[in-house]
Backbone:
């Protein structure tokens, strides 16, 4: 891998992080009633809800780290498969985002539905949020990793 690709992947990873943080924060604002409902307190990790208040700084640091790593993985994978994705430019990236959603987002949603008692509307919100992150993230990856 050349230095050029390494830089493109790192920049793409950072931009993916920003996109994911913004979309997930907006999503959380609209679904806050689920997070603050005592009925669902048992669902959330101690990292996310260490007490009956907002998440601590550790949660946000973990979220940023995970979104950065995810962005770098998605960008690295895109650099390997971009030649086999149809379209040009941003369209190619949107196709990649659809592919990511189908192989990652849909199985995640179905697995969560089977394993956990998460409210269906919250799960649908997470699914749509993930799809938006993947589509916008894919478009940006295609713009940066030419």
Residues:
């Amino acid at each position: 891998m050349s230095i050029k690709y390494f830089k493109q992947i790192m920049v793409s990873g950072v931009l993916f992080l920003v996109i994911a943080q913004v979309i997930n924060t907006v999503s959380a604002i609209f679904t806050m009633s689920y997070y603050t409902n005592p009925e669902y307190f048992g669902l959330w990790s101690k990292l996310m809800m260490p007490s009956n208040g907002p998440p601590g700084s550790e949660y946000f640091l973990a979220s940023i780290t995970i979104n950065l790593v995810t962005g770098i993985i998605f960008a690295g994978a895109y650099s390997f498969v971009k030649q086999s994705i149809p379209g040009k430019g941003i369209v190619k990236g949107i196709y990649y985002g659809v592919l990511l959603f189908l192989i990652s987002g849909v199985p995640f949603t179905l697995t969560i539905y089977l394993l956990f008692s998460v409210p269906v509307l919250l799960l649908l919100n997470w699914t749509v949020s993930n799809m938006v992150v993947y589509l916008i993230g894919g478009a940006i990856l295609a713009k940066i990793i030419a």
Q: What stands out?
A: The helical segments are 3-30, 32-36, 57-81, 90-115, 120-144. The chain has a mean pLDDT of 92. The CA atoms of residues 52 and 58 lie 16 Å apart.
